[in-house]
Amino acid sequence: MVVLRVTLLVFVAWTTMASASDCPRKGTLGTSRILEVDAAKYPRVGLKSFPQTLPLDDKEVVLTFDDGPAATTPRILAALARECVLATFFQVGKGSQALPDIVKKVAAGGHTLGHHSWSHPHLNAMSFEAAKDNIDRGISADEVALHGKATDVPSTPFFRFPYFESTPELLDMLQSRGIVVFGADFWASDWLPMTPQHELELITGRLKAARKGIILFHDPRAQTAAMLPDFLKYLRVNGYRVVHVVPKPKDADKHLNADNGSRTN
User: Fold this and answer.
1) Strand 158-159 to strand 180-182: parallel, antiparallel, or no bridges (unpaired)?
2) Which residues form the domain of 137?
3) pLDDT digits (tens, 9 = 90+) for 13-54
4) DSSP code of 179?
5) In 3D, which of 36, 45, 39 has the Cα closest to residue 17?
6) Where do runs of H (alpha helix) occur along the chain?
7) Which of 168, 213, 252, 253 has an alpha carbon 20 to 30 Å from 72's alpha carbon atom?
8) Based on the structure, what is the number of domains in the chain?
């Protein structure tokens, strides 16, 4: 029984890695691997906000998008699908409530859905209780859009603070709930007015300097939707690899610990 369980775990890990690079179209960028993020080991990631980031190799990037869902999100999804690339979308609850079909479309594409509060406020300027309520209300709206059930327990325990404005109390609260807080390693500054070409030059320049990391975009921005196909082509031509992040299963360590305990008996 122990051998069977270990074999099953190995098989699941292998198929996860294999499906990451599987793409029906040759010559696409693809997704090189899936990275399971352990909330206990990586409670807060992103060098713009925290001293720690994800364990990425040289020329590996994680693509993230904030502030959706929006009318432009399907254009983002289409660009990612053409290159068989998976990304993470940090969603605002109000948008999820208004556009649940787009939330479902993001999930159907295999992307990871994180959370970005209910109304995108300055959470650090609110009382702890008001900020916590805004976070939980956003999580609940995202869960209703995705699963039809209101809950403040996120099926994907990833959260990003609006404007990256956290407080020690809110960080501790999220960590106590096993929710990973994502910052970013660098970003496209696409909240500023600019042409798609300007944004492409800006983000590729920052990528050359950083060489790897968590990248922040915003899917409601029209210039980002217009720029993204060229950016994905740049990644492909220049040998960059896309890593897709998912939560580490909560029971993974329990299975391994049980197996280890069985071996010692």
Assistant:
1) parallel
2) 2-22+29-264
3) 333 443 445 787 889 999 999 999 999 999 999 999 999 999
4) P
5) 36
6) 2-21, 73-82, 93-98, 100-108, 128-147, 168-176, 196-210, 222-237, 252-264
7) 213
8) 1
- In total, the chain counts a number of residues equal to 265
236-251 pLDDT, tens per residue? Answer: 999 999 999 999 998 6
Please enumerate in sequence order all residues whose Cβ is within 8 A of that of 262, keeping only pairs 6 or more positions apart, or say none: 2
- Decide: 75 and 211 in contact? Cβ < 8 Å: no
Taking a C-beta distance cutoff of 8 angstroms, is the pair 207, 187 a contact?
no
Q: Which amino acid is at 25?
A: R
| 3-state secondary structure string across 87-141 | CEEEECHHHHHHCHHHHHHHHHCCCEEEECCCCCCCHHHCCHHHHHHHHHHHHHH
CA 36/CA 112 separation, integer angstroms: 11
Identify the CATH number of the domain in which residue 138 sits: 3.20.20.370
Among residues 48, 39, 73, the alpha carbon closest in space to that of 159 is found at 39
How do strand 60-68 and strand 241-247 relate by DSSP bridges? parallel
In this structure, what DSSP letter does residue 57 have? P
- The tokens of 243 are what? 């890593």
Cβ neighbours around 264 below 10 Å, total: 5
Please tell me which residue, 85 or 17, carries the higher pLDDT value.
85
**210 CB contacts (<8 Å, ≥6 apart)?**
185, 186
Instruction: Give the distance between the most distant pair of CA atoms in the chain.
Output: 65
Q: Does 100 score more than 70 pLDDT? A: yes
